[in-house]
Amino acid sequence: MKYRFALRFFLIPILILIASVFVACSRDPNVRKQKYFESGQRYLQKNRYREAAIQFGNAIQVDPRFAEAHYQLAQTYLKMQNWNLAVQEFDRTIQIDPDNAPAHIDMANLLISGRQYSEAQEQLDAVFAKNLNNPQAHIAEANLKAGEQDLKAALEEMQKAIQLAPDQWESYVDLGLLELKAGSPDSAEASFKRAVSLNPYGGPAELALATYYQQRSRWNEAELAFKRAIEIDPGNPTARAALAQLYILEGKNPDAEQLLLRAKKDLPELAAAYRMLGDYYFSIGDLDKAVAEYASLYKQHPRDSQVKKNYIQLLILKERLDEATKLNDEVLKANSQDTEGLICRGQIQIHRGHANEAADTLQAALHGDPENAVAHFYLGVAFDHMGNVVRSESEWREAVRLRPSLIDAEKSLAAVELSKGEWKPLGATADQIIHLWPALQDGYVLRAVSEINRGHDADGEADLHKVLEVAPQSPVGYTQMGNLRLRQKQFSDAEAYYEQALNKDPNATDPLAAIVNLYLVQKQPEKAVSRIQAQLARQPNNSNFHYILGSVVFGNKDLKGAENELRRAVELDPNNADALLKLGQVQVAEGSSDEAIATYRAYIQKNPTDVRFYILTGELYEAKRDWTRASEAYRKSLELQPDNPLASNNLAYVMLEQGGNADMALSLAQTARRGLPDSPNAADTLGWAYYQKGAYNSAIEMFKEALKLNKDNPEDPTFRYHLGLAYQKTDQKALARQQFERALKVNPRFSNAEDVRKLLTQL
Question: What's the CATH class of domain 475-537?
Answer without folding.
Answer: mainly alpha
